[in-house]
Amino acid sequence: MSLTMSDALVFFGATGDLAYKRIFPALQAMVRRGHLNVPVIGVAKAGWNLEQFRERARDSVEKHGGLDPKAFAALSKLLRYVDGDYNDLPTFKTLRKELGDAKHPAHYLAIPPKMFPVVVEQLHKSGCADGARVIIEKPFGRDLESAQSLNRTLLQTFDETSIFRIDHYLGKEAVQNLQFFRFANSFLEPIWNRRYVDHVQITMAEDFGVQGRGAFYEEAGAIRDVVQNHLLQVVMNLAMEPPAALDGECFRDEKVKVLKSIPALAPSDVVRGQFRGYRQEKGVAPDSKVETFVALKLAIHSWRWEGVPFYIRAGKSLPVTCTEVIVQLRRPPMLYTESPLVPNHYRFRISPNVLIALQTMVKRPGEGLVGEPAELLVIHHPSPEEMDAYERLLGAAMRGDPGGFAREDAVENAWRIVEPVLGNVTPVYEYEPGTWGPAEVERFIAPPDGWKNCGE
């Protein structure tokens, strides 16, 4: 693994929505912390010049995070701009000139996936790929075959150690905290296994619909949009073994072992739903069968997790916006109590804030041995000074640290798991906006003791 620091950052799609909302604010933060002092070259076809590009950057940080005059002034001096078509080799020859003496640039592809092969080939032809890294934005394919094809394309030009597949979810403070909490606290290890854990629930709820992105969602659906990537990443963090060393590749090795232990889903493992009104969204087919909600059950065939089901639920137009993990322990024997015991659980909230909770049983005040559940809570409210996911991941990619990025075998195994249930292989059930999905979820994919809803 190369640890050479990148000496330039090139980002394609520099005039796009992702750059406007996320990348420019992340770059300004990197400059403010002293983590970025190399040329930053935007590439796009917009007919712009450098001053227009700088104005776009200023407008971005003013609307998304706040302008830091000193940091932005420094960032503005680093900015360069190349205007041109990605299909034209002269665009990349101009880029090569703009790179100047840079020998180890990092190329960030914040562009539609269909353009990945085009840009990678042009980087190779122009010499811009020599000694470089490439950072690509998800989705990494639409299914197993397209993911394998994309990986072949990337590996024709770049070594795997120079490929950084960026999923912003892996850069979230809360997701990294979940991993840290597991391995930094010795009281967890004795019970973090099939002997004590009854089941695991992961819920990613959003209280809004597709927000005008109906055409995009018609091509994605909930399984492709969040399960194959974000939520399987959460599963890996929960289920992985301790890494042999504090090394990015060691962490990725253990995560891949988890995926390899998960059999491919069967239709009986999945319930899909669609909120009422989705078909009236712009860009959505009037007879659409695309899921805006999914619930599924995973098995992990490993020594630690054999027989422990992992339940995943994700959807739009649900009652709240919240992502939580519930690790429910086995119910204790009914001794010395006059009321049923509620199983203990650990609760990890990933968004909108960071919360860690342990539910315990305590005696209710009064006569008799009657118990009631109570949660011990630790809540962390993010501050504006904390690193954004993109700031953290762009910095890591430029340093050559692979730990927060998806490796080739992880991407392909994740697609292998969901491949049999992509498309319309299972029915899609309608549900009312503001509810927790279709009723069929409780009949077919319901954890022991039912779902634990966020905020309850």
Strand content: 15-25%
Q: In angstroms, what is the radius of gyration?
A: 24 Å
Alpha-carbon distance between the two ends: 45 Å
Give the helix level as a range of percent: 25-40%
Structural class: alpha/beta
N-to-C SSE series? Answer: EHEHHEHEHEHEHEHHHEEEEEEEHHEH
Form type: globular
Average predicted confidence as pLDDT: 91
Physical arrangement of strands within the biggest beta sheet: 14-13-12-11-7-10-9-8-15
Which blocks of ≥5 consecutive residues have pLDDT under 50? none
Outline the biggest β-sheet: 9 strands, mixed
Number of helices: 13
SS elements, strand count: 15
What would you note in describing this structure?
The protein is of the alpha/beta class. The chain contains 13 helices and 15 strands. The protein has helices at residues 17-32, 50-63, 69-78, 89-99, 116-126, 144-157, 173-184, 214-219, 221-239, 248-260, 389-399, 408-418, 440-444; strands at residues 8-12, 40-44, 79-83, 105-109, 133-137, 163-166, 197-205, 270-275, 293-298, 310-315, 322-329, 345-351, 354-363, 371-380, 428-431. The strands form two sheets. The protein has a nine-stranded mixed β-sheet. It has a six-stranded parallel β-sheet with strand order 3-2-1-4-5-6, with helices on both faces. The longest helix is centred in the middle third of the chain and has 19 residues, at 221-239. The two termini are 45 Å apart. The mean pLDDT is 91.
Concise synopsis of the structure shown:
Helices cover 34% and strands 21% of the residues.
Main features:
single chain; 456 residues; alpha/beta; six-stranded parallel beta sheet; globular
